[in-house]
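input
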Amino acid sequence: MIEGELLEKYGAVKKSFGKSEIIFEEGNMPAHYYQVISGEIKMSNYNDEGREFIQGIFYKGQSFGEPPLFLNQKYPANSIAVEDSEIFLLPKLNFMKLLEENPAISIKIIENLAQRLYYKSVMAAEISTHEPEHRVLKLIDHGIAYFNFKKDTNGYLINFTRQQIGDLTGLRVETVIRTIKALEKKGELRIINRKVYR
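output
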């Protein structure tokens, strides 16, 4: 997203987070721009029954948590390290100055936010109207396009766990497992050494 050298020029610091460590909590006021250097971050919240719903998953080079930063609103979800991760933290005022002084970066940020909004709109429609097979394939195809999943001789390796697919599509894990098997039988997916390929 934003080059590390430019972030550091404006005062960004690198911070490490261990697996399952909270980066920020739902209800907190935003104070920083966050960008992943390495690892994997998820933003999620829980419903009244304690079921997790993942709002998004973020990888190297991706930023997260910007909407509340721009709106000066509380975070609507928790941000947690899925694995050991390193992140750039840039104070809000410095981030705003960076955007004012670098219009091309501002356009990149707008495009990124538009992409996420588009994805949320598409997935909201999928969750409310489509069958599990359609939901899972839509999520996987979005992941291939947006998360740059690696391709090898078996196809695109889908880096989501079955649990993450469930949490991103509103499906139970058992349903995800059955759906992936059904999609494999139809030739839409391949399962090799328990890994899913498209």
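quick obs: The domain at 4-102 is CATH 2.60.120.10 (Jelly Rolls).
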